[in-house]
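User: Can you recover a sequence for this backbone? Please restate the input before giving your answer.

Assistant: Of course. Working from this structure:
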């Protein structure tokens, strides 16, 4: 309220109090009133009672008129007294509000107590004044005596009293004050504008009024962002994966600090929230001075980020998908990959006798496969339809030795393995495990057969290698009774037999 208006209010109240007091002072007392009545009606007074001067009793009509006149005077007195009390009480509460709650957020909240207290004072004052003017009428039984009235009033005021007591409980707790932003689950959000004995008035962010009764409010979950608190907010944004998160974080943090209403007491936090489908998702946590305008501040932050990104060449992420189209093994290899396979095959000693054409054919029938360190490429005892040439990495050949594995050999780039099973049709003779990340070329029987048919010397050299490895395996297992020649023959023979060669 403007200072001038409140001064006026005080002055008017004082004038009203003086006027009412003056009227009450000059208001005729019962005796004066009786005297006036007696004079007016041509009657006399005996011991304070109006009587006929002739000593006869007064007519019914006369008595009624006197009674009505006296009653009107008493009612007028009650009204004047009540007006004086009401003006006085209002002035006192107004002055208390001006001094005790001066500028305090409690001022509005206290209106509930003020109302309750005023009503109590008015009732008591009315009771006392009424009894003084009409001592013959007993008011007390009205309040105490009638149980039925009590029940009726109780039922009628059930909701009102519920609101009143819920309001008093809320006021005792004081979970919020005028000016705080509250979110009431399932009902709405806004700024507390007014608290009364009936309920709370909230102004929503759409400038609508939300009025909720105290009894309903008492049962709800209320999220309060106090007015005098530095409340936090979270705003999200994202960038493309190509942008450096460190740089983005530094730039955005500085920009957010400059935005109005962002608290300078706490440094905003910008961090990577998620590596999302479309890009890097960030979140900004900042503290706000005036929570009532958080929508505007959030929006301003987003707007500033857009300008910042424009200046710094940072891009927001938009929905993107990276498609990796896998080429089927049978499809033609790209030239570069094909050449590198052929190169590797050329470097393998046993393929030395092969012509360029045959190497090319072999390369066409080869597949590149990659294995992780520790991963088994070949498992002992399994059927084997392919052999492998190491392009990159190394492997260890091992056989079971009790509970552990015994390494019988290690092979590196350009070495081959798996030939024993492929060429003889026997089960795999050992486990072959990648030592480091290893890339191999897998050559299948169908790709090798025409080449073996055209190169008998290749069959010979492979069979030599097979025999050597067999011997080494036999000695590792402690079985050294093998007869070299016999084995050589049998290896060569079984290769020929298995491939149907002459
Ligand atoms: P295969 O029997 O098909 O499967 C296991 C492979 O380990 C085998 O072929 C050989 O290529 C290889 N191998 C077996 N013993 C040795 C060894 N002593 N040295 C190197 N490699 C071997």
């Amino acid at each position: 309220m403007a200072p001038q208006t409140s001064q006026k209010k005080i002055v008017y109240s004082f004038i009203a109090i003086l006027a009412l007091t003056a009227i009450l002072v000059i208001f005729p007392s019962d005796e004066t009133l009786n005297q006036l009545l007696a004079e007016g009606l041509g009657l006399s007074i005996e011991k304070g009672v109006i009587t006929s001067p002739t000593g006869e009793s007064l007519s019914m009509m006369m008595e009624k008129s006197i009674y009505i006149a006296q009653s009107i005077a008493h009612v007028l007195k009650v009204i004047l007294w009540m007006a004086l009390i009401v003006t006085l009480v209002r002035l006192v509460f107004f002055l208390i509000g001006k001094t005790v709650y001066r500028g305090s957020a409690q001022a509005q909240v206290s209106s509930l107590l003020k109302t309750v207290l005023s009503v109590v004072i008015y009732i008591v004052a009315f009771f006392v004044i009424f009894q003084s003017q009409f001592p013959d009428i007993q008011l007390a039984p009205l309040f105490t005596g009638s149980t039925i009235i009590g029940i009726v009033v109780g039922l009628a005021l059930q909701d009102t009293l519920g609101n009143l007591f819920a309001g008093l409980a809320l006021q005792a707790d004081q979970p919020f004050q005028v000016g705080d932003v509250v979110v009431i689950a399932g009902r709405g959000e806004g700024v507390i504008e007014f608290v009364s004995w009936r309920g709370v008035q909230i102004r929503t962010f759409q400038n609508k009024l939300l009025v909720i009764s105290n009894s309903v409010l008492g049962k709800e979950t209320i999220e309060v962002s106090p007015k005098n608190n530095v409340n936090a907010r979270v705003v999200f944004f994202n960038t493309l994966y190509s942008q450096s998160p460190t740089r983005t974080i530094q730039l955005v943090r500085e920009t957010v600090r400059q935005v109005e209403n962002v608290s300078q007491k706490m440094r905003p936090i910008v961090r990577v929230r998620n590596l999302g489908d479309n890009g890097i998702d960030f979140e900004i946590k900042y503290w706000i001075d005036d929570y009532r305008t958080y929508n505007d501040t959030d929006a301003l932050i987003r707007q500033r980020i857009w300008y910042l990104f424009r200046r710094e060449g940072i891009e927001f992420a938009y929905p993107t998908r990276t498609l990796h189209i896998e080429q089927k093994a049978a499809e033609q290899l790209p030239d570069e990959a094909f050449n590198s396979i052929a190169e590797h095959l050329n470097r393998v000693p046993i393929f030395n006798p092969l012509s360029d054409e045959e190497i090319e054919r072999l390369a066409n029938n080869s597949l590149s496969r990659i294995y992780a360190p520790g991963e088994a490429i070949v498992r002992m005892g399994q059927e084997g339809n392919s052999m492998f040439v190491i392009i990159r990495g190394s492997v260890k050949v091992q056989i079971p030795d009790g509970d552990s594995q015994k390494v019988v050999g290690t092979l590196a780039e350009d070495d081959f393995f798996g030939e024993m099973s492929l060429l003889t049709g026997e089960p795999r003779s050992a486990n072959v495990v990648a030592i480091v990340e290893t890339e191999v070329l897998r050559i299948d029987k169908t790709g090798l057969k025409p080449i073996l048919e055209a190169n008998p010397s290749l069959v010979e050299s492979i069979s030599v290698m097979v025999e050597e490895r067999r011997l080494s395996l036999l000695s590792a297992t402690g079985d050294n009774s093998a007869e070299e020649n016999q084995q050589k023959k049998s290896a060569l023979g079984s290769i020929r037999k298995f491939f149907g060669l002459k």
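That completes the design. The chain has three domains: 3-167, 231-312, 334-499.
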